[in-house]
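Could someone model iron/sulfur cluster with this protein?
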Amino acid sequence: MIDKNTDTELQLDQRDLDQRDIESSPEMRDFDDMLKESSLFPLKANGINVLQINVGFKCNQACKHCHVSAGPSRSEQMSRRTFEHCLRVLREGKIPTVDITGGAPELNPHFRWFVKEARDMGIDVINRCNLTVVFEPGQEDTIEFLAGHKVSVIASLPAISASQTDAQRGKSTFGNSIEALKLFNQAGYGLPETGLEINLVTNPVGAFMPASQATLEDYWKRVLGKKYGIKFNHLFTITNMPVGRFLNWLKSKNLLDEYMKKLTEQFNPKAVSAVMCKSTLSIDWQGYMYDCDFNQMLGLRVDHGMPVHISEFDNEKLNQREIVTKVHCFGCTAGNGSSCGGEVV
Ligand code: SF4
Ligand code: SF4
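Reply:
Sure, complex below.
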């Protein structure tokens, strides 16, 4: 049975306005036209290797760039029943990996139960952690729990400078993130002999493209290692997508046109064949299905004759679905490309 969609009219109107804002930018070209020029239209899925589930918008932080506009006052949370649907889909679709995101996923009351069930099924679990959540009340043993279930962690840290990180994420976030990373290292994360993986993810603190991932990873490893003794596996650089709170920030600074121009000019056909929607299915807190987390935030559900809710999951159809593309997709295909796992080419 399908959960009732409780989105307010206001939220849907806002998403529509956001999309129109980007499309009306004078610098904007049609993304599908660019695909056609490169003989890459229509963009199609090539199986589902990752089920990415957004378990709700509650977060202990309220970052300026947050593309899901999460924060402490958000109350939307995935229900146990929707989590159960996710487990069934992982089993039926033989999907090897579940990537849990939010908000702060750890704040969902069903988070630990779901992780245990998925791990018992032999599914690889990725948890997208904002680091500071481990200092929230009731989260004292979160790191131990994640390590005990061999959950891979992708931890967000905008910059290795306190001032830049705090400007984007709030006062003292950098210091608390460093302390949290030390605790992850103490639990074995980032140490080759344990197999416990912690990857950091960074996005530019402003309206510009990320620097080269390999160069930045090398630099971050040296600085974080020398200054704080911190180890991590990889650094993922992610392009800021013109959606959610980052879009509002661009508009407030009159930077939307300039930013969209940068993304469009750097369109890279090679990145198109590796965009994450080709191998990922994204689920929202109510169980609706999307080609990616960004489409989810824009309210663009899977389309082209696909079932839209996880209770109607059809592996064969969704495996080769046509993807819903719009102008924000330039964010994934500019330069070396961008995905939830960093550069794609
Ligand atoms: S970016 Fe991450 S940590 Fe920041 S408000 Fe959004 S979900 Fe929370
Ligand atoms: S935003 Fe990126 S991942 Fe999402 S549909 Fe567009 S190209 Fe695919």
